[in-house]
Amino acid sequence: xxxxxxxxxxxxxxxxxxxxxxxxxxxxxxxxxxxxxxxxxxxxxxxxxxxxxxxxxxxxxxxxxxxxxxxxxxxxxxxxxxxxxxxxxxxxxxxxxxxxxxxxxxxxxxxxxxxxxxxxxxxxxxxxxxxxxxxxxxxxxxxxxxxxxxxxxxxxxxxxxxxxxxxxxxxxxxxxxxxxxxxxxxxxxxxxxxxxxxxxxxxxxxxxxxxxxxxxxxxxxxxxxxxxxxxxxxxxxxxxxxxxxxxxxxxxxxxxxxxxxxxxxxxxxxxxxxxxxxxxxxxxxxxxxxxxxxxxxxxxxxxxxxxxxxxxxxxxxxxxxxxxxxxxxxxxxxxxxxxxxxxxxxxxxxxxxxxxxxxxxxxxxxxxxxxxxxxxxxxxxxxxxxxxxxxxxxxxxxxxxxxxxxxxxxxxxxxxxxxxxxxxxxxxxxxxxxxxxxxxxxx
Amino acid sequence: xxxxxxxxxxxxxxxxxxxxxxxxxxxxxxxxxxxxxxxxxxxxxxxxxxxxxxxxxxxxxxxxxxxxxxxxxxxxxxxxxxxxxxxxxxxxxxxxxxxxxxxxxxxxxxxxxxxxxxxxxxxxxxxxxxxxxxxxxxxxxxxxxxxxxxxxxxxxxxxxxxxxxxxxxxxxxxxxxxxxxxxxxxxxxxxxxxxxxxxxxxxxxxxxxxxxxxxxxxxxxxxxxxxxxxxxxxxxxxxxxxxxxxxxxxxxxxxxxxxxxxxxxxxxxxxxxxxxxxxxxxxxxxxxxxxxxxxxxxxxxxxxxxxxxxxxxxxxxxxxxxxxxxxxxxxxxxxxxxxxxxxxxxxxxxxxxxxxxxxxxxxxxxxxxxxxxxxxxxxxxxxxxxxxxxxxxxxxxxxxxxxxxxxxxxxxxxxxxxxxxxxxxxxxxxxxxxxxxxxxxxx
Lengths: 443, 443
Description:
Two copies of one chain form a homodimer. By secondary structure, the first copy, chain A, is of the alpha/beta class. The first copy, chain A, has three domains: 5-133, 3-Layer(aba) Sandwich (Rossmann fold); 140-301, Dihydrodipicolinate Reductase, domain 2 (2-Layer Sandwich); 346-427, ACT domain (Alpha-Beta Plaits, 2-Layer Sandwich), CATH 3.30.70. The first copy, chain A, contains 14 helices and 17 strands. In chain A, the strands form two sheets. In chain A, strands 7, 8, 9, 10, 11, 12, 13, 14, 15, 16 and 17 form an eleven-stranded mixed beta sheet that branches. In chain A, strands 3-2-1-4-5-6 form a six-stranded parallel beta sheet, sandwiched between helices. The radius of gyration of chain A is 24 Å and the shape is elongated. Chain A starts with a strand and ends in a 16-residue tail after the last strand. Strand 12 (294-301) of chain A pairs antiparallel with strand 12 of chain B.
């Protein structure tokens, strides 16, 4: 058996300690599958004395993580510190500049600096493994970069943040409002004390940028993603969604359109029977639509020490085997600069909820505004009477543009009989997939 | 860019023609992702004049597929002829003996001769790609061999035959009996004129043998699989399953038990809310339980020209990139000879349906037999009265052994008041997965 692959681990938080634990626990199994041993030779973390439940005997401590990159004994650097910039980025640059492959779970850093780091890796003849950066232990980076590499990808979409999915699932099951469920999630440890990165959609958008880069062979463009979080989702919307046969999910969607590459992260209504609608609680799910393979679905735990360590070590095994791919699947020179489809050009169906005065003529006013913007109504629910006071109206539209919808809603919001700001949620059409057989020849 | 990878395709049926079409249609895209062109230089098929809708200009025809293996211009052989033995096996042996990697969709051949072929590949320094042999285009071989390589696998299970899943889905949705739905499936082209390979479970068992070999690091042992098909499943069983909160699926399960490696392929009741229960129609689904990653789910089309070609070409791209792994994930010398857990040692819960004379005392007789075999009843449905004549009794058991259950059912079947052979379906306990959140810390 060849000599061990010598690894440095920077950051010994939940994930870093999990990686070390996994490498120790499955040492023999991993050596068989990797063709050689995977050996942690150096680590770096803020507190050398903290008890982490891992054996670090014989492993060198470095107080300065940057020194790991320059350590001649280190062949691969695992960056598990986190953060878009700062020490994580400095370490990534130093490792790649030294020609050493980088393995990282850092979606924020790659979503923003991925193009620069990929170019540096390529220049120095090395690569970046980032399976752990998207959807935890689900091997969806490998599926996109290798398993589905024969396909033109039409669309990739998914539930990419377990905290948001947990909150939306709880809201649906209990009927409670967002703020209450968030507080409970924080108490239970399912949401951070500062939950903004999760619930405002940034974490999921970082992951979407990476999926889109792989699927469409471009540079990650976090800045090009339309992002809306889940703060505005109400129990009423969730109830109406169920009534209409949908569930509300925080969905990241990337697809190629006539206007360019569309990337958006927002609450969306998905058919309740679709596989992605069945992904509940803290789980993640990703769907890839390929032109030859059709729709393929990947589900599992999107975070946590075990799943993330599983993904990091899978990348390490690939490196131990000598398998090195271009970071985003094709050489940097072949990465496309896809035009960015503006959100205004988005074409889709919409759910609209209005609170209006219950008097004759209100529907006529609203219908007239929609007609003026060439928006046609697919369904309408107006239930309960409260003459002279507020009642809800729920509409779904046929396909229209975001631009038309935004303008129509602004105008509707200004009608005197409309009592609150109109609420809008996009409806995501999902192809037939598992659970929705479609026609065709032999299975 | 390095010179093209030169490929021979043996067999130009639906799949073979699909592979050639895919390679032509995505020629530039594939070259970017593979780092070089993938070029079909030679083909072999029975009828050279048949119209296949593919361009074979400049491609050499070989009437004898074995000559492809010896052709010095050919670097990789795609065996897409099919069949457990015969010409397919001869070609596989010839290609590997010549040190050329083999890419194949042939699950029957690999399930039976996989160990021999893997040893030959290793001896000659080459490998076998067989992503297309299991679950069509879903990259589940890659997930097991690479993406989840850091995990000890506890269990792998799945719906591996689209024909059977289509029939069971139709039976559930329409309430019609097996024979009627099979006939319709044959008319629609979803089932073969001779459907035995599919509906008696052999096709799915071939795939299970390959999944189990990868998951548990052993040789494929098709002969060690307990196989039951779906001919015996009745609309009554499907109805009772729904009432009890289950769906009936033809499930392949491999798991490590105290008695050894258990491999079984049979109709099973799975919780209706589990992700695998949602895989309907012609779709396939596979679940892998890993000790670090938890439960991960893979779904998509399990067959057809497009999905199968997607998997074959993914293997070709891996080879073009120089990525070559041991056939079953570890060197042949490291493959374990796991003891075969006899089916009699299987431990699980059971569904039992009896047709009995409706008179006092019958339940007492049945309960006494179960008690004598230490089987405890979990639930019981006895509905409708038909004094002195036949009524159904449906039971579910707590955990017991297959041996105890088989003996108890034989004894129950001999009771004078039991009118028909007792029907039994195993219940598969599924861990919490997507859709079934469990406790734990941060998602």
